[in-house]
Design a protein that fits this description.
Length: about 90
């Protein structure tokens, strides 16, 4: 699976709610009603990441979690990053 071209990346972003490009990754900040809700989200996302073998960079704050997906091996965003972003969105509902 190769890196997305700029055109492909822009098309992928159209299908992702609130995700932005940050350096060589796609990123989104999720907000939660409580700190523990954010931690539950992180745990659920970590389980999905293990299944798909594509792990995000996570920053946990007070009632917020910032998620970034990139392919560290390839140095940028792939289709798998976009797929995992959709999974992250579905877990935050």
């Amino acid at each position: 699976m190769g890196l997305l071209s700029k055109i492909e990346l822009n098309e992928a972003l159209k299908t992702l709610d609130g995700w932005t490009v940050l350096e060589n990754a796609i990123s989104k900040e999720f907000t939660f009603d409580s700190y523990m809700d954010g931690i539950a989200f992180v745990n659920n996302l970590a389980q999905k990441a293990e299944v798909h073998n594509h792990h995000p960079d996570l920053t946990v704050g007070w009632c917020t979690v910032t998620v970034a997906f990139t392919s560290h091996d390839q140095g940028g965003v792939t289709d798998q990053c976009a797929s995992m972003a959709k999974i992250a969105d579905s877990l935050s509902l």
